[in-house]
Each structure stands twice: as structure tokens, then as C-alpha cells.
Specification:
Order of helices and strands: EHEHEHEHHHHHEHHHHEH
CATH architecture of the largest domain: 3-Layer(aba) Sandwich
Helix content: 40-55%
Low-confidence stretches: none
Shape: globular
Number of domains: 3
Mean pLDDT: 96
Strand content: 5-15%
Radius of gyration: 20 Å
Length: 300
């Protein structure tokens, strides 16, 4: 069996397609490629595979760490490598499924990911935004290639490039050509297209159903730990809006409306990310996509 990736924006149906294929095939396991599904206790608004689904198909990289723990792209990549070795040792096929584009590229393209240097990053972040121009000038001098690959106003990327240069002693650009380079990969990506007029309706309905399923109670339980969410977990769409509601910053209605807007914006960012990758095979029809995934998994 082979490795295949199913990609697409949130709400496109990629997860249900993957589960259906894995369940019907019987010898296929799913590696979740989602930056939020790794967190325990964050299940409803991450659209995480249910316990029933996990009893039917073996899933990996779900509920890996507590939400107040940081889980980096490098940690994800390492954990995914271990999972794939175990899956293939059992003679099973691998389905990568998720909408977190960078995490997907980390495994599909086997990125060389530089280490994190939190102390250096913290010092650099104190200089943003007032000294962003100076930081970019520093990056131009230290690593002109990396600087040429980013906008002078992109504080996050500038700080990361300088963090790596200062911490590792290596230019950030030496870790690879970057996400704008699409090399040949043995892992074929199958993309599910989305009609955004219909998808917007689905996303709004889905979020309101999550509220009925107990999203507020789930977030309240997370806050009861007394520990702040990690930097990544705190960015989870839906959770941050409900946290604002519980902290009295918004009404419940405002939180729901803002979460729905943020979810629609996330879907469009995901579409833009995946559309840049010329290697993805796109399908508007679910049955056609399913047939292609099965064909790829079974190909010799």
C-alpha cells in the first residue's frame, strides 16, 4: 500500500472521505494533519474524529499533548515519521488528511526544519513593530536570500528567520528553498474543491451545531485548568472567540458571529494555500476523488 494525502479547506468533506476509504479498505490508517487536533480536550470545534470513528479506523496524531503544551511543526513532523513507520510495518496504507498546509508540506516534502530558540525570539518580538524596519535590514545583511523571500512588513517571518540565524549560526535560507518551492514527491495529493457559496452555509450551520453539542462547556473546562493555552492552541478558530465570551469581552451572540466569520476566512486562506501547489489533483466530485484515492493506495 502507498501513501496518499487528501487536502482541502475546512468543511470540504475531506475527513469523511478519508474515513470512508480507510474503513472500506480495511488496511489503511489515517494520519491527521491538523495543528489543533493534536490537543487533548479540544474536540468539538476541531472537528476531530469521534471515538466511534477511531474505533473503526486507526487514527494517528490525535490527542497527543495537553492544550497548554506547545507542539511545533518539527515535533509534528517527527511524530508523523514514527507513525508512518509503524503503519507501514503493519503493511497498511497511509492517508494523510487535514487542512493545516504547513504541517502537510512538512511531511510531504520532508522539510529540513530549524530548531526553536524561544529566548532569542522573545527578545526579537519586543522590537516589533517599532523596530521592524531595523530587523528587516538586519536580515538583509545576514541572509539576503531569506529576506528576498518575504515582505519587509511580515514581522512573524522576519523574527523567525533572525531567530534561526542567531540561534543556529546558519542562514534561515540554508534549511531549504521554502514553501514556494514544489519539488517532486512520491506522495500524491488529492484535493477536494469547494463551492464557497454552499460551503459558507455549511460552515455556519456546523458551528451552530457545535454550540449545541457543548462547545462553551468544553472551553470552560479547558479554562478550569488554570493554565493558559499554548501559543498555537490559543489561535484555534472558535475557541478564542468563546474564550472572549467567557471572559466577558463579548456576548455569546457576538462570539458566535465572530467565530463563523473567522471560520469562513480560514477556509479561504486554506484554499489559497493549496491552490498554489501545482502538484495537487483537484476533484469537484466526491466519488471521483474517492476512486482516485483508492487507485493511488493500491497502485504498485
Amino acid at each position: 500500500m502507498n501513501r496518499v494525502a487528501i487536502v482541502g479547506c475546512t468543511g470540504s468533506g475531506k475527513s469523511s472521505l478519508a474515513h470512508s476509504v480507510a474503513h472500506n479498505q480495511g488496511d489503511v490508517e489515517i494520519v491527521s494533519v491538523d495543528s489543533m487536533s493534536v490537543y487533548r480536550g479540544m474536540s468539538i470545534a476541531t472537528a476531530k474524529a469521534s471515538l466511534h470513528e477511531q474505533s473503526e479506523v486507526r487514527y494517528h496524531l490525535i490527542d497527543v499533548v495537553d492544550p497548554w503544551e506547545e507542539f511545533t511543526v518539527a515535533q509534528f513532523q517527527s511524530a508523523a515519521r514514527v507513525a508512518v513507520r509503524e503503519i507501514e510495518a503493519r503493511g497498511a496504507g497511509v492517508l494523510y488528511v487535514g487542512g493545516t498546509g504547513l504541517y502537510g508540506r512538512a511531511v510531504i516534502d520532508d522539510f529540513d526544519i530549524p530548531s526553536q530558540f524561544p529566548d532569542i525570539r522573545a527578545e526579537l518580538e519586543t522590537r516589533v513593530p517599532d523596530e521592524l524596519h531595523d530587523l528587516y535590514a538586519e536580515l538583509v545583511a545576514a541572509d539576503p536570500l531569506a529576506a528576498s523571500r518575504m515582505e519587509p512588513t511580515n514581522a512573524r517571518r522576519i523574527v523567525r528567520a533572525l531567530e534561526v540565524f542567531r540561534g543556529s549560526g546558519r542562514p534561515f535560507s540554508s534549511f531549504g528553498p521554502g514553501v514556494a518551492h514544489y519539488a517532486t514527491s512520491p506522495i500524491v495529493q488529492v484535493g477536494l474543491e469547494a463551492d464557497f457559496e454552499k460551503l459558507d452555509v455549511v460552515l455556519e450551520s456546523r458551528f451552530r451545531s457545535w454550540m449545541n453539542e457543548g462547545l462553551v462547556e468544553e472551553v470552560r473546562s479547558l479554562r478550569a485548568s488554570g493554565r493558559p493555552l499554548s501559543r498555537t492552541a490559543a489561535l484555534a478558530v472558535g475557541y478564542r472567540q468563546i474564550i472572549d465570551f467567557l471572559e466577558g469581552k463579548t456576548s455569546e451572540k457576538e462570539a458566535v458571529d465572530l467565530a463563523i466569520i473567522a471560520t469562513k476566512q480560514l477556509a479561504r486562506r486554506q484554499r489559497a494555500w493549496f491552490r498554489r501547489d501545482p502538484r495537487i489533483e483537484w476533484f469537484a466530485n466526491r466519488d471521483d476523488a474517492t476512486a482516485r484515492v483508492v487507485e493511488l493506495l493500491e497502485a504498485s
